Amino acid sequence: MRLIEKDALYFELYDALAHFMGRQHLVVQAVIDQGVNPADLIKGAGGWYDKTSQVGWWGKDWKFFFHGGGCCITNLDTGEAIDWNGPDPQSFDPYFFVHHLEWRLSREADLALLRSYIQQRGNSLAIADLIHDLIVDGIISPNCHLTPSPAPVSHL
Amino acid sequence: MISLPDKEPLYRELFEAISYFWGRSQYVLRFIIEKGVDPRNMKGVDGWYDKSPQVGEWGDDWRFFFHGGGCTLTHVQTRESIDWEGPDPLAFSSKSFTYHLEWRLKMETGLPHLRRFVNDNDQMAVWKLIDDLIDDGIISPDFHLTPDTISAPS
Q1: Which of B15, B34, B153 lies closest to A29 in CB terms?
Q2: Domains in chain A, number
Q3: Phi and psi of B42, rounded to 5°?
Q4: B40 inside 8 A of chain A by CB
Q5: Which of A13, A21, A32 is the best mutation test for B, with the most CBs of B within 10 A?
Q6: Counted domains in chain B
Q7: Which structural domain range is residue A119 located in?
Q8: Residue B47 lies inside a defined structural domain of this protein
Q9: Cβ neighbours of residue B21 under 8 Å, at least 6 residues apart?
Q10: pTM > 0.80
């Protein structure tokens, strides 16, 4: 099924996921700036423990916190927390997305459909069910890429 | 290699704006895929001409326009225009980003450093800032926000 054929709620969800994926680039850059190769996070803590402290500052505005094979950065002014589990920079973690969405909903007036859905369900983690639907429909890949791995390039 | 926090706030704001644009460009990629077009085949008109009309609607809110090896989505109400140049799904185009930035600066009150820079220079001067980030190794020469050197474990 195509995104355009689905309920408007899913369109808003895809929009929020794309926004989160954009923000996730900041975490990946913070990881790189600590001298850590994101690909090495496949080793868990072994990917970073000898290169950086677990907790510290990324510039004046962000604090970083390495955990297992991931890293979370938190903005001191806004409280925005962006968490990413390595090693794949193109993949998102549904739980971290929901956590970030909660922050957005507390700060922004839009995202009306997602806000209403969470209020009806009484639990923001219910968003994970919607993400699962997008995976079942092939709109998001099972490894949580927004752009599923395309077919091999044709050389016309 | 220079780290992003070592740079002026202008560059940090630029990186955030590019990240934001990259997220928005995922919309264009989703649209292209839903038209049955493989983004990696978007090297020219051959990539889409037999699969989609050049111009049309995507739902009630978006208009699309295929051009060469790229595609633009334009929102009918906000006039947000998101352009993506193929064929690399992970790359962004400086030109497309700059046009989108121009729209954001009109619609939003934030981005103070970029706003001041664009007011003092012009939109195209932003390309030079992007080149600086490439020279510093923060953005890859093929316009990936995540440089290719990290693709394999060291």
Answers
A1: B15
A2: 1
A3: -80, 70
A4: yes
A5: A32
A6: 1
A7: 3-136
A8: yes
A9: A22, B82, B92, B96, B97, B100, B101
A10: yes
